[in-house]
Amino acid sequence: MARDPLISFDKVWKTYGQGEAQVHALSGVDMTIGRGEFVAIMGPSGSGKSTAMNIIGCLDTPTSGRYDFLGIDAGRLDRNRRAVLRNLYVGFVFQGYNLLPRTTAAENVELPLIYRGAPSGERHERAMEALEQVGLMGRQNHTPAELSGGQQQRVAIARAIVTRPTLLVADEPTGNLDTARSHEIMELLTTLNAELGLTIVMVTHEADIAAYAQRTIGFLDGRIASDTRKLEVA
């Protein structure tokens, strides 16, 4: 089933350095990701996957070519306008949970809403809703030290979705977790994708983790080497 495009690369190049030291991190990449897709990006170190993710998340811009996000030529926006786009529409989850250590789970989840200037009542209500969505009701007053690694990553996911973003960018989200917790986190991401219609772009180097996605894009030497989709069951 065709989906409206959310992300589009048109001959995207990303070049670092000059002269003999010049490196092409991306070499003319064409790629489209539709709204509501769950996409895994894989590839060896230096393949371009992290560079692509940084551009997708509006953290970086192409050297040449065009990056469209939500129909906006995001690659041509200045740093401040990209920050606005990120804050409004993109949530991030990283391998490290990046939680404030002496702050409760609820307070960690509220942080993006504080930056938006949301009133305290709304912040609390939406933080509770996000914690419920990730299965952590009853743990809202626990600090990170009182939570397991899997629970800390759930708090980080709640913080990423509390702003109700259009896109979730996940960078090795299970990298610090054991196998059982890794699969619990992937089941959660699959549920959020299905129930919220959240578009997820995830970088991983683990095939069993990528298998949760509907589509896997493989990078090699700055280019897309493969693009495979799961067969949809009728």
Features of the shown structure:
234 residues, 7 helices, Rossmann fold, six-stranded mixed sheet
Concise summary:
Belongs to the ABC transporter superfamily. Macrolide exporter (TC 3.A.1.122) family. The protein is α/β, with parallel strands linked by helices and about 230 residues long. The chain is built from seven helices and ten strands.
Would you kindly provide a written description of the structure presented here, covering whatever features stand out?
- The chain has a single domain (5-229), classed as Rossmann fold (3-Layer(aba) Sandwich), CATH 3.40.50.300.
- 34% of the residues lie in helices and 27% in strands.
- The chain has helices at residues 49-56, 79-89, 105-116, 120-133, 149-161, 179-196, 207-210, and strands at residues 5-16, 23-34, 38-42, 64-69, 72-73, 90-93, 167-171, 199-203, 215-220, 223-229.
- The strands form two sheets. A six-stranded mixed sheet has the order 6-7-8-3-9-10. It has a four-stranded antiparallel sheet with strand order 2-1-4-5, covered by helices on one side.
- Strand 4 and strand 5 (72-73) form a beta hairpin.
- The longest helix has 18 residues, at 179-196.
- It starts with a strand and ends in a 5-residue tail after the last strand.
